[in-house]
Specification:
With about 240 residues, this protein is mostly helical. About 70% of the residues lie in helices and about 0% in strands. The chain has a single domain, classed as Farnesyl Diphosphate Synthase, CATH 1.10.600.
Length: about 240
């Protein structure tokens, strides 16, 4: 999970110790589905694998024994840490939809898995309510675009879209997320700390992602702002 999504790995270290295993399990699950969607060439093959995940999630939701370590961790997170099973099924459904669209598909389709992941992580930390849905949607857009930029820079390959256009859109989504986060409980901040990576990545669009230290420094500053400022500052801490 650390290699698959470093900002989320670092952000989880700022969460309460008791919540970290559940967050790591959630993010590892999302990373596995993301790899699956990126690897398969034929939608039907992806459907088969995603259906397996859907069936397993349904089974553990009904109390069946989990057959893999990751599913056992997810079952524990559902039972002990308020992880919403419907959120997991939603991520599966979003990845299924993604199988049938080209890489340049509508933003809403590309952003949905990330948006659902932000919302599930925040819910695990106790957040709920209307502002959470709005904040998660915008956060998903910002983070997905930032990851697009990081992947393009890391692979050395271009794309149909100008990196500067993607970067500007990522920053617009980040501002929208910050506004919505004003209404989200401060305890949910670790779920949104990955957004600390968006601005540094956007600033380096086309020239490689920022180093870990730059991202960790922004996360540390955001976490400190939360402790000082509380609810009113959760959004501004991530600008």
């Amino acid at each position: 999970m650390r290699a698959a999504d470093r900002p989320r790995y670092f952000a989880t270290l700022f969460a309460p110790a008791g919540s970290r295993p559940a967050l790591f399990a959630l993010y590892a699950f999302a990373a596995e589905l993301g790899r699956l969607a990126a690897r398969v060439r034929e939608p039907l093959l992806g459907e088969i694998r995603l259906q397996w995940w859907q069936d397993q999630l349904s089974a553990i939701g009904q109390g069946a024994a989990a057959p893999t370590p990751l599913l056992r961790e997810l079952a524990h997170a559902i039972g002990e840490h308020r992880l919403d099973p419907a959120a997991l099924q939603g991520i599966v459904a979003a990845r299924r939809l993604e199988l049938y669209h080209e890489p340049g598909a509508e933003e809403a389709i590309r952003d949905e898995p990330e948006a659902l992941l932000f919302r599930a992580a925040a819910g695990l930390l106790g957040a709920s309510g209307g502002p959470l849905a709005e904040a998660s949607s915008a956060a998903g857009g910002a983070y997905d675009k930032a990851r697009q930029l990081a992947r393009r820079a890391g692979s050395g390959t271009g794309g149909e879209s100008d990196p500067s256009i993607i970067a500007r859109a990522a920053l617009d989504d980040l501002e929208a997320a910050n506004r919505a986060l004003a209404g989200v409980a401060p305890d949910a901040l670790p779920a949104f700390l990955p957004l600390a990576a968006v601005r540094p990545i956007a600033a380096r669009a086309g020239s490689g992602p920022p180093g870990d230290f730059a991202i960790l420094a922004r996360m540390t500053a955001a976490a400190a702002t939360r402790r000082v400022g509380g609810r009113r500052r959760i959004g501004s801490a991530l600008r």
